[in-house]
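Course assignment 3, question 2. Fill in each field.
Student: A.L.
Task: Predict the tertiary structure for the chain below.
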Amino acid sequence: RSYRLLSLVMPAPTDSATMPGKFFASHWRGVSYGPFAPDSKRVVDADFAHIARLGFNSVRLYEIPDQHTLDAAMRHGLKLLCGIPWSEHIDFFSEASAWEDIRRRVANGAAFLGRQEAVAAILVGNEIEKTLVRWMRPHRVRAALEELIELAHAQAPQKLVSYATYPSTEYLVPRNADFLAVNVYLERREAFARYLSRLQNLA
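Answer field:
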């Protein structure tokens, strides 16, 4: 299969997208899933059923789900955290056409996801590479991400919106993001606990 299944634990809303304070209103225990293989409808349904049986209540997707995936999530009581994919590993400031294409992808993706009951939150990007961020200048990249979040908010006002950074660019936190999203792969419990404290400060 051309997708991977990774366990993770993160806070998130269940029935509604609410942020009453520093933390989400309830706990979201989820897995990341994808990308999808061609003609994978039966596989997705079986996997979502298995995910629910394991006690998870949410799934992070790296692609915009099709109707079958949305229906499968609803059928098995799973909430979705959906990424809107675009070419994060290019200098999107160097060509106006590239930036306009990114804006269009985010606006169209958010408009679709905003209408889906199974979708709890949207990510407008994922892990822009650290050397590229430095090349383009961090303050310019953050401003661009904030513009994408604004676009997503306009198209999906009832959904939470953020950008998924990673430890090498932990400083890249959009000021208008609804929550802090960081991809962390630390296999030692002690190291993860220390970094979790750091993320609490960032949040």
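Instructor remarks: The two ends are 36 Å apart (CA to CA). Confidence is low (pLDDT under 50) at residues 1-15.
Grade: pending
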